[in-house]
Design brief:
Helix 1 packs antiparallel against helix 3, helix 2 packs across helix 3 and helix 3 packs antiparallel against helix 4. It is elongated and about 65 Å long. The protein is mainly α. It has one domain. 76% of the residues lie in helices and 0% in strands. The protein has 4 helices and no strands.
Length: 129
């Protein structure tokens, strides 16, 4: 029985590794496509480095980022890629919770739930100051 647990653990670790690999590659592809779209539309514009302009609201709110990307805005697609990149390790932590639950490992389940809660709080509720 111990051998089957080791095999299941190895398979789950492989799944988590593939999840991270695929998530990063997918996010990078989305950013690359967004960059191409952006350069097609704005590549010839002069750059002004003397004035700082913050991100417009449609590039700060996840719902608006998705809407902007759906309209094939280059900046919106790039921001969507960044959101996907951020979501990749968060998804890994979430999947780890299920893995530890399946293994009936209470200690690691609780610790991973705390980490997941901290990630969610930091991403959605902490306004930084």
């Amino acid at each position: 029985m111990n051998q089957s647990n080791d095999k299941a653990d190895a398979q789950f670790e492989q799944f988590l590794g593939n999840l991270l690999r695929i998530g990063v590659l997918f996010a990078a592809t989305v950013v690359g496509v967004g960059s191409i779209i952006y350069l097609i539309h704005h590549g010839e514009e002069p750059t002004n480095y003397t004035v700082f302009n913050g991100q417009p609201p449609e590039l700060r709110d996840p719902k608006l980022i998705v809407a902007s990307a759906a309209h094939l805005s280059g900046r919106g697609v790039i921001q969507l890629g960044v959101l996907l990149l951020i979501a990749t390790p968060v998804t890994r932590v979430l999947m780890s919770i299920f893995g530890f639950l399946r293994a009936r490992d209470v200690t690691y389940t609780i610790l991973t739930l705390i980490v997941f809660g901290a990630l969610i709080y930091g991403l959605f509720f902490d306004k930084g100051g």
